[in-house]
Every structure is written in structure tokens, then in C-alpha cells.
Design goal:
Blueprint: H1 8-39, H2 43-65, H3 68-99, H4 105-111, E1 118-125, E2 131-137, E3 140-146, H5 149-167, E4 172-176, H6 189-194, H7 202-216, H8 229-243
Parallel strand pairs: 3-4
Antiparallel strand pairs: 1-2, 2-3
Length: 244
């Protein structure tokens, strides 16, 4: 056997692992579907309607162009895809609705950020579980506060001052999670961050992350890992949906 070439046993083990992962994803999707179906009475009608509408359009176009035999299966596949998208979005909406207003919800959302984001949760906190989280990304440094607006205001000011001393002229953004004027709703947090302008590159991000590492080492009140036990489950299901 050539050096570095995987053995038959290794290939078989890798194949078995992939098969098990695929089985686990299907199980998670089925669980997510069952949970959502029980709470969302519109889910099935919307999904079925998407498939039927797609097939109907395919039949009509097929009759016009004379390719019904080809377009109907294509309509079924397209309808299934639309139905799956509807399912994923309604699951996500349900997750955010349940997380709204709960301690640790913003940290949970930040942990699900995709892309080149460096997240440090709970860099400052109060005994009432108000917290400030730090995100380093292409926009610069973003401080995200959740909890009582009156209490987190001072936390934000302190962290902004400390951060500014170490990162020079790199932009610092501060956000308070909430539904009042000047605040960012929890469900809009990820979108808000991705719409911020790009001000620095990856090299600068690495430099800033190193300089701020000492600030993250400070202890504070423990924060929940997620907004709720079911939220943790739904988080895994969201990841499974994105993989699909």
C-alpha cells in the first residue's frame, strides 16, 4: 500500500461516518418538522400549496410548449425546494420569537453568525444578566448589549472607552438589543451586522483580536448558553437546514 493512501478499513470507516451523519441530519430535520408542525398550523398548507402551485404552473407551461412530460417533474422538484425554504424560514422565525427578551438571546444569535466574525460573549455583565458582547469583523469592532437599556448604557460606555484605547482609529459600533427607537430587534441583529460598511481587512482583524484578548479574560456573571433549552435544540436544527 502506497504511503499516505487510506486503507480499505479507513475508507469504510469514513463512509460509515458520512452515512451516520446523513442519518442524523435527516432525524434532526424530521424532529424540527414535527415540532414546527405542532406549533404552526399554516406550515403544512403553505408547503403543500407551494408544491401544487409549482406543478400547476409547470403543467400550464408544458401544455403551451408541448413539454408537459418534462416540465411536470421539474415543477415537483421546484415546488419541493420552495416548500423546504418556507419550512426553514418559519422555523427560524419561531426560534427568534421564543428567544425574544430572554437572557443570553443575543449571545445565542451571535454564535450563529456565518462568515469572518470573531465573537466574544459576555465581556461585561451585571448580576441581573445584562451583558455586552464583542464582535470583530470587517466593519471593525461591534459592541452588542442586551438587557435593561438603563443598565447596559454604562456597560457600553465603559467597554467602548477601554476598546478605543487599544484599537486606535478602527471604527467602533455599539448596539442595544430591543424594539424601541434606536435599538436593534433580535431578529434583525445578524442582518444589521452584515449591512455595516467594510472598514478593515482580515490582517487588521487579527491584530485587533490579539490586542483585545486581555479584556476578554476578565470574569463576570455566568450567562446562559442559549435563551432556552428548546432554543438549543432549534439551533442545531437551523444548522442542519442550512447544510441542506
Amino acid at each position: 500500500m502506497a504511503a499516505g493512501k487510506p486503507s480499505k478499513e479507513a475508507k469504510a470507516a469514513a463512509k460509515a461516518a458520512r452515512k451516520q451523519q446523513s442519518k442524523e441530519r435527516r432525524r434532526q430535520l424530521w424532529q424540527a418538522f414535527q415540532m414546527q408542525r405542532k406549533e404552526d398550523k399554516l406550515l403544512l398548507p403553505l408547503m403543500i400549496g407551494a408544491v401544487l402551485a409549482s406543478v400547476a404552473v409547470a403543467v400550464i407551461i408544458g401544455l403551451i410548449v408541448g413539454l408537459t412530460w418534462f416540465l411536470v417533474p421539474l415543477g415537483v422538484v421546484l415546488g419541493a425546494l420552495i416548500a423546504f425554504i418556507i419550512f426553514g424560514r418559519r422555523v427560524q422565525k419561531n426560534v427568534y420569537r421564543k428567544a425574544e427578551g430572554q437572557a443570553g438571546a443575543a449571545a445565542w444569535v451571535l454564535d450563529n453568525m456565518q462568515g469572518k466574525w470573531r465573537v466574544s460573549n459576555g465581556i461585561a455583565a451585571t448580576t441581573q444578566l445584562d451583558a455586552v458582547h464583542r464582535v470583530i469583523g470587517m466593519p471593525g469592532v461591534v459592541l452588542v448589549a442586551e438587557g435593561s437599556p438603563q443598565r447596559v448604557k454604562s456597560l457600553l460606555a465603559q467597554e467602548k472607552k477601554r476598546t478605543a484605547r487599544l484599537i486606535g482609529d478602527t471604527p467602533i459600533y455599539d448596539i442595544v438589543i430591543g424594539n424601541d427607537e434606536g435599538q436593534v430587534p433580535l431578529k434583525e441583529l445578524q442582518r444589521y451586522l452584515t449591512k455595516l460598511p467594510r472598514n478593515i481587512n482580515t490582517k487588521r482583524m487579527d491584530l485587533i483580536e490579539g490586542r483585545l484578548a486581555a479584556l476578554s479574560a476578565r470574569g463576570g456573571p455566568a450567562l446562559p448558553k442559549g435563551p432556552m433549552p428548546t432554543g438549543a435544540k432549534m439551533r442545531g436544527m437551523q444548522r442542519t437546514i442550512r447544510r441542506r
